[in-house]
Amino acid sequence: MVPLMLRHCLVLIATLVLLSPVKAQDSDLQMLLQANRAAIEKASRSTIEPVLDALVASKLPSVSSFLEKWREKEVWQRKDDGRFFFARPADGGQYMLIDIATGAEAGLADKSAIDQLKPNSGVRAVIASTLVEFQLSDPDPLRRTEALTALERDANESHLEPLRGAIESETDPALKARKIRLERLITIRFGSDAARRAEAIRSFAGDLGVDARGALNPLVATTPGFAEDLPAGVNVARMLTPGKSIDLDTAYGMLVDADKAPRVVSTEARKQALIAHMADGQVGGIPVASLDTQEARDRAYMALVADGRVPPLITLEMKQAEVARYRFYEAYAETDPTLTEAAEDTLSSISLQVGFNRFLDLVLDGLSLASIYFLAAIGLAITFGVMGVINMAHGEFIMIGAYTGYVVQQFIPNYTASILLALPLAFAVAFLAGVALERLVIRHLAHRPLETLLATFGISIALQQIAKNIFGTQARPLTSPAWLDGAWVLNDVVSISYIRIAIFVLALVFLVLLLFILNRTRLGLEVRAVTQNPRMASSMGINPDRINMLTFGLGSGIAGIAGVAIGLFAKVTSELGSGYIVQSFMTVVVGGVGNIWGTLAGASMIGSLQKAIEFFNPSNTLAAQTYMIIFIIVFIQFRPKGIIALKGRAAGD
Amino acid sequence: MTGMIHDASSMNALLEVTSVSVSFDGFRAINNLSFQIGGHELRAIIGPNGAGKTTFMDIVTGKTRPDSGRVRFGEQSLDLLKLRESDIARAGIGRKFQRPTVFEAQSVFDNLLMALKKDRSPFAVLRHRTGAEDRTRIEEIAAEVGLAEQLHRRSGELSHGQKQWLEIGMLLAQDPKLLLVDEPAAGMTLGEREHTTDLLKAAARTRAVIVVEHDMEFVRRLDCQVTVLHEGSVLAEGSLDHVTANPDVIDVYLGR
Amino acid sequence: MERSFLIRQPSVLVFLGLLALFTIGATVLSDGYGLGLMSTSFVKILGKTLCLCLVAIAMDLVWGYCGILSLGHFAFFGLGGYMIGMWLMWARTKDIVIASMATAELPATAGEIREAIGTQIFGVVGGSRIPAIWAFADSLAIQLILVLLVPGLLALVFGWLAFRSRVTGVYLSILTQAMTLALSLYLFQNDSGLRGNNGLSGLQNIPGLTDLSQSVISIWFLWASALALALGYLGTAWVVSGKFGHVIRAIRDDEARIRFLGYSVEAYKLVVFVLSALIAAVAGALYYPQAGIINPAEVAPIASIYLAVWVAIGGRGRIYGAVIGAALVSLLSSWFTGGQAPDIPLGFYTVRWVDWWQVLLGLGFVLVTLYAPRGIGGMFDRLFRKDVS
């Protein structure tokens, strides 16, 4: 670094030059360059530094782009007056000169009249490094952020010094933190001072950033190796025991690859050898026709070996003996054990943190799934509780809600407005459908729950097919408003999409709303009365028909809302509802009938359980669902009436 | 006083209920109830609504599990609390419900056939052939309860009283050691009641019979020991005249 | 004793007679053995329909007679199909593999044959390793036993768990539905060992009978299906006509009451459930060789619900009702969805039955439930003034 004083001197020189008889309209940058003209024309790694410092110190806005162009060999010098320009080819072998400060065109020039500046690679590296520092110290915070982001994406050794230089002067605390973090990351990867690297490594203990793990993991990467005696200077991660921590065949294969042991003759190779040595219907004295067992083939091959016509068989014992002569190990690519040790420590503390945060993420996932199940199932639970009937067409009410949302979006292009309208409309449409179903079918099947189940199934297949006939079989999109795009990112591990948060809020709203309706309103009182004792309720003047109709409508309406919610993250098809119906049943059965809290408990249990199983077996959501259903079947053994069961005579046997 | 009456039978009580309590959602339906009945005895249990009569029967037949207490039955002192309903029935306890519950879709004969004392395991039943002996027995029982003419009618077509008799007939066919009968006379005409009384008395000659009843007139006709239940425990025991003279009982029945 | 049973059940004789007539008629009209007036594919449809009638009987036994509305019976049907399908596919692949290896320079070893079979069968799910459940696939006898054993065991375990905890009514229906959903999801996985969503295919080719044309094989299967249906009908009629039948109907009508008569309701339900599962498994084992392919979608919950619909439309609690329902609805269904039914032009809209049959079926089913709860069988009964129980 050039001392500050020198910089001031240079500026002074520049100012002096300014006074000299150069054209008056020259830009500050041009003047500064003219002042250092000699050094720029014959740039070398050792002499260029003061010039660059002067440029940086000038704090001129156009310096950055000039440096970039210079590095890219895109700066030209006019021979007659020595001025610097950018240039682009124009007609007739001429070049259009461009002012370095303003970017304005500055007239045509013949190729012969200008010289291209061709800084060598050493100079270019110094320019680049200066450029980094320059950009990182740019007065515009936006430019600094840009430069930092570029650096985070792709950094190398040469950036370390300029970055360090740009930390102290940083005024924005967020950017400063980012710079410090980046400095440590680059130190880990490219630092030359082992102590400093180790310090940087340890500073990331418990850090959740993907970048930290990205910087640390290469340090602990290992390659397997072997030697008769452990060589010095190898940073051994762990020893390998053939047959235990390393496969015998793999170990032997390593010997073969290093030409320390003869290659194994594979079964297929032996077969080919037998075929190659067939003669007169015989191989090694054994008739070909009898070679239909592996034992017979082995015997024939051994016969060929005895004749020395094929390479000998490597037996298991031979492999073991060969392998036993060497010691196998895994070695770090990084040779400094203090660094690998620090990295291992840091990584294990990170993985502890990551584990905890994964769990947190899982809980959030489970919660969001639970809120979907809750929305899908609560309507079913209410109608089941009040009327004792299972509505198989419940899934189709969900579908109706989703299609309502889709249709609304066809008319209202504003997504926010359309979703806000779709929610009440979906409720209304599904409510009406539910009321119609109750009046036309279910009422006539009172006290025949199994018949009701089947009749509503008939409705279900009819509705599904009608939807298919109207909307076709292809999936229809239900687009969420832009403000629901993206996710709330807590850190690199925990994030949750805004749609899911919205659904969670929606579920919460309906939980509160339903609790209010059931516990604080006349309708709720009557619903609870009918749930607990229909005969008594009707003798007290409650009209059960009206209650049944309203609760059925309410349950169906919420299904419609659930449909809009589900449609936001899943495509809308005629099978949308049937995908959720069994899970909804499960939620009701597990939670217990006729109780909002029960449904909440059931939804939470099924949602979190499904996520938990998926967590242990992430590749296979099908298996997760299978295990979950089996779990539920077993769970019913212990709580046949669900988590929250009505007790005593009210439950009715 | 009641102890004196039961000294003889308590030596070999058929059913022995000791300190049983059960509550539903905080309501004590049965409160520290103790009760005994001998091998060949007719007993009436009376009590106002909610006295725990039906719950008592539920406990004995295994439908309801008490919170505490013991229920022993028979010579081997079987612990009924450890058995399922069907095991208790097979051990020799028959129950007639308040509302007549017969299998209405099936004939009187088939109803009695199912009740007949036989091996009840599925595979034995699968192999079962209805022989002449079974027919005779079913006809006997039908004649006893007055349904000889109705044997091949669907039991759903029977009158209310006939259904009650069919149910009693089914109990007899089971040949239980103990019969629990819940309000057998409800909804019966006078003539039907007399017939029912005779049936129960005859049954009590060979087994123990417990009749739960509201109707004092009917209880009087039964002419047997009476146990009065109130708020889940025994209020009084003895002959009908004896208990109806008890001031506590009068208090309970006439209200305070 | 059989005599008295048949005399008491004249409808059994009528049914057996009709079935025999039907089978003879189909044979006479068929391509393989008769006049060639009936296509082989139609013979297969008839044969498959007989199998569906058989599984409908199983459903009727468990629902119509015992009151357990199982919405998972196609799990047993499908498992029966999978078990026989394993042998069919294995043995057929083995024949092909051996034939293709006959020209190799060295005679094939058993290991090589196995490996080639593994590649052939499981290549489609990305592997050649033979899963352990295929250990017996080479043996027809063992796979035939497994046809009964595997569905039977599933029914036994599931039934024991469900009945023991006294889950009844719609709860039980939902649990059975969950059971078949779990099975189908499991089978959909590639590592279920049963080729994931590809299922088992080529089942119409019977190993060892490659010289015979499908027209002949289809008739054989028609006979086998008819025989199975006859035996199933006879057996079920026998079971439900005796005292056992009275007891299970009593369970259907009032489970608590029969318990106080000393019958272990759980044991009876379990016996009926397992028996019914076994019948369904046999039906499945006969169905899928005629269908040619089985995949996990076959055991999805919807199929089992359709089964209940057939039985309800036919009239439950009557064996012939189940048969009528299954035959009628499945034949109508293939007629409508096969595109043979004429479209109805309404001017502004053309009703295409391929699109509207489901709607018709669904609504028709609702109407049957509302206005003819005893189904078609119930109308029969009214016609012959039969006393139903």
Helices and strands, with pairings:
The complex is a heterotrimer of chains A (653), B (256) and C (389).
Chain A: H1 4-19, H2 28-35, H3 37-41, H4 48-58, H5 63-71, E1 75-78, E2 84-89, E3 94-99, E4 105-110, E5 114-116, H6 121-136, H7 141-153, H8 160-167, H9 173-190, H10 194-202, H11 210-220, E6 222-227, E7 236-240, H12 248-257, H13 267-276, E8 282-283, E9 286-287, H14 294-306, H15 316-324, E10 327-332, H16 337-387, H17 394-411, H18 415-440, H19 449-471, E11 487-489, E12 495-497, H20 498-520, H21 522-532, H22 534-539, H23 544-569, H24 578-591, H25 596-616, H26 621-638
Antiparallel strand pairs in A: 1-2, 1-5, 2-3, 3-4, 6-10, 7-10, 8-9, 11-12
Helix pairs in contact in A: 1-2, 1-4, 4-6, 5-6, 6-8, 7-9, 8-9, 9-10, 9-11, 10-16, 11-16, 12-15, 13-14, 16-20, 16-23, 16-24, 16-25, 17-18, 17-19, 17-23, 17-24, 18-23, 20-21, 20-23, 21-23, 24-25, 25-26
Chain B: H1 2-10, E1 15-24, E2 27-37, E3 42-46, H2 53-60, E4 68-73, E5 78-79, H3 85-91, E6 93-96, H4 108-115, H5 122-127, H6 132-145, H7 160-174, E7 178-182, H8 190-204, E8 208-212, H9 216-222, E9 225-230, E10 233-239, H10 240-244, H11 247-254
Helix pairs in contact in B: 4-7, 6-7, 7-8
Chain C: H1 2-8, H2 10-29, H3 40-65, H4 73-101, H5 110-122, H6 140-164, H7 169-188, E1 200-201, H8 214-241, H9 243-253, H10 255-260, H11 265-291, E2 293-294, H12 301-314, H13 319-337, E3 344-345, E4 350-351, H14 353-371, H15 375-383
Antiparallel strand pairs in C: 1-2, 3-4
Membrane topology (chain A): Multi-pass membrane protein
Protein name (chain A): Amino acid/amide ABC transporter membrane protein 1 (HAAT family)
Family (chain A): Belongs to the binding-protein-dependent transport system permease family. LivHM subfamily.
What can you see in these coordinates?
The complex is a heterotrimer of chains A (653), B (256) and C (389). Chain A has helices spanning 4-19, 28-35, 37-41, 48-58, 63-71, 121-136, 141-153, 160-167, 173-190, 194-202, 210-220, 248-257, 267-276, 294-306, 316-324, 337-387, 394-411, 415-440, 449-471, 498-520, 522-532, 534-539, 544-569, 578-591, 596-616, 621-638; strands at 75-78, 84-89, 94-99, 105-110, 114-116, 222-227, 236-240, 282-283, 286-287, 327-332, 487-489, 495-497. By secondary structure, chain A is an alpha+beta fold. A 5-stranded antiparallel beta sheet of chain A has the order 4-3-2-1-5. Chain A is extended. Chain B has 256 residues and is α/β, with parallel strands linked by helices. Chain B has a single domain (2-103, 175-254), classed as 3-Layer(aba) Sandwich (Rossmann fold). Chain B has helices at 2-10, 53-60, 85-91, 108-115, 122-127, 132-145, 160-174, 190-204, 216-222, 240-244, 247-254, and strands at residues 15-24, 27-37, 42-46, 68-73, 78-79, 93-96, 178-182, 208-212, 225-230, 233-239. In chain B, strands 6-7-8-3-9-10 form a 6-stranded mixed beta sheet, with helices on both faces. A 4-stranded antiparallel beta sheet of chain B has the order 2-1-4-5, sandwiched between helices. Chain C has one domain. Chain C is 70% helix and 2% strand. In chain C, strands 1-2 form a two-stranded antiparallel sheet. Chain C has a two-stranded antiparallel ribbon with strand order 3-4. In chain C, a hairpin with a 4-residue loop joins strand 3 and strand 4. Chain C is globular. The mean pLDDT of chain C is 89. Chains in contact: A-B, A-C, B-C. The B-C interface holds B 61, 63, 84-87, 89-90, 94-95, 97, 101, 103-107, 110, 113-115, 120-123, 125-126, 128-130, 154, 170, 174 and C 1, 239, 242-244, 246-247, 249-250, 253-254, 256-265, 267-268, 271, 387-389. Chain B: InterPro entries: AAA+_ATPase, ABC_AA/LPS_Transport, ABC_transporter-like_ATP-bd, ABC_transptr_urea_ATP-bd_UrtD, BCA_ABC_TP_C, P-loop_NTPase. Chain B: Keywords: ATP-binding, Nucleotide-binding, Transport. Chain B: Residues 15-256 form the ABC transporter domain.
